[in-house]
Amino acid sequence: MKKLLLILLMCAALGAEDVYEGDLTATEAFEMQKKGTAIIVDVRTTLEYIYTGHGEGVINIPAYEWTYIPHSIEERVKSSEFEIKTSKTKEHKDVQKLYDAKEVFNQNFVPDVMKAMKMRKVDAVILVCRSGPRSSAAANLLAKEGIKAYNLENGFMFGWKEAKLPYDGF
Question: What whole-number distance in Å separates Cα of residue 32 and Cα of residue 104?
Fold first, then answer.
């Protein structure tokens, strides 16, 4: 996720122009969903959608997933031993460094969004992620495919939840 955020920030810094329709507040997005004029698609990974919650009625179509390839068992055992020895000092290793993370683009993302729009008989989609960058990138991707796409401003955590809209999860 850090790599994707870095890429998105670099594109913004280099003047990459947004081509999607615009940013909507969570309340505006929720109203469009209720009126049946748009669907809301959560582009976060399946695990994020399930375990950190999601807006009511929001469809999860991950733009990508992650694979994690563990380093050697020797490294992981040493890390475990280090954690046991230092548990009182809180001086832990960064566990993420024990895995090589690889981003895998969902090849079905665009077709699945189009199919969901057709099933709900809408001509617009609103994209949401945790805080906004991934969904704006996905909105740009869809807009370049000719789809009327919006970005949910501030994402699920800082837009939807703070607006106190209904959601499932924690």
Answer: 31
